[in-house]
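Hi V.,

You were right to ask for the full record rather than a summary. Here it is.
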Amino acid sequence: MKNRVFLSPPHMSGKEIGYIEEVFASNYIAPVGAYIDRFENAIKKYTHTKNAVAVCNATSALHLALRVLGIKDSQVAVSTFTFIGSVNPLLYERNEPIFIDVDEYWHMDAGLLAQAIEENDIKAVILPHIYGQVADIEPIHKLCEQNGIYLLEDAAESLGAFYKGRHSGTFGKFGVYSFNGNKLLTTSSGGVLVGDDATLAEKAKFLSTQAKESEFVEYVHKEIGYNYRLSNILAAIGVAQMEVLEERVLKKREIFSWYQEFLDEEFMPELPDTRGTRWLTTLTFENKDPFAVMRKLEKHNIESRPVWRAMHRQPLFKDAKAYLNGRSDELFAKGLCLPSGTTLTKDQVRNICEVIESF
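Predicted structure:
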């Protein structure tokens, strides 16, 4: 739409077309080819993880993590303030989600998680890092280690974010990243599963390619597999995007600083000793209705979006167990996501803020 300001539009590096042309020249456009290897290697090098498996999206990556760890028909704790993609894979394996409310940094509350662990037989914790920020990982990681619980990091939105100098997504048994069309790094769709256990990573790769037994020439299958592998074409886009990832992070943080300069509101806080990407600039209003602000921005052809409606408030999970402190409900009542695309100029941000302030 002409002159529309989108929430977080894709931004190409300029090298994508050249790499895609190489893919076509090689005739490997399916989920096999040199660019898949290059993309996985770029992820490993950047995040300092030992293994990476490129798949069609982060939801499938999370599903593969559950499969290879044998987490099924079990209780799994997950933050209630997240996207449904953090939770749906649990249902694929007939798991019961137990929802945990958030702390003052908008991420899983470790105290509530400790209570949930004490009162339930939790086999895994899915820890989402939202809006490009990171959760307070250490106390949650410690709880998982002490209780023999697998920690899975849903870092779909936070590639490029650090916790005490270490990448989000690299603390748990597995981490997942998303390359959806609106993410900091985009391949239009796509995801990566990362982890240090080579045997488990290889098992995930096997399951992602229909679980075809390699020792047979013909197609032989002994267990359920999935068509989850990323295509070589999309991997080529990912390689080009990885080359400008750090530049994108710095631009997102600059955009966030402009909003701080022009608006006197409460922005999503950043945990000390961390670096978020500020993938989306998010804030809460004390004296404005965020839905009314969103409607006014829309009249000016400016896209915005509510923050997550908590999972325990979704009709799908109306009977689910939840450990609550009221923060996720308060955030939904007050919060808004603002345009954060890396092509934004300071003047555009100023104009957006003027519309908000005029409300």
